[in-house]
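User: Sequence for TetR family transcriptional regulator below. Tokens please.
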Amino acid sequence: MLVEERGTRTRRRTAPTKGDLRERAILDAAEQQLDSVGADGMTVATIAQEAGITRGALYFYFGSKNEVLAALVERTVTKLRTEVDEVDAAAAAPGDAVRQGIAQTARMWREHGTVMRTAVELSPSVPAIDQAWRSAVVALADTMAGVAERAGLPSGTAAEVATALVWMTERVFYQAFVADSSLDDAAATLTRVWLAALGLAA
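Assistant: Structure tokens for TetR family transcriptional regulator:
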């Protein structure tokens, strides 16, 4: 958005607006609710109360609890995609990209596991969440297909292998989180499988 500054000069506003901050507070409150009472226990009213606003104010931004959850999933997976892309861009070798990408994914499950779990469990019944989650998987698979190609796999094979491995990664971390098992152990196992599948040294 351009705002006027001293006559004809303009500059781009970079600070978040009041609406941006309110929406962020709602999503933060929703994540806190997921951590404390879970998706089934939270309502629009409890999210609004956690955020310190009225239900009417929340409805100005989101039409339902599922819309809040879909936006929360979108925010979380966007952060994951960005971090994995940054790892890939910075990694000098395919093996490093694999190790660091899985480590980043494990960290996201550690920090935002309830959101990730909710995405997996509600995707079959909430189309907006399914779209956000699947788009994240596709984007991550595209990034990792590039890693697989750099490791020596042919283009078509690289895409197929990366897609299968990304879905496997989702399932392994989900099961570890639900079972309260070690995410570090899951990451170590996944790293070995990825490296073996791409023909890279462990």
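Residues 12-63 form a domain with the Arc Repressor Mutant, subunit A fold (CATH 1.10.10.60).
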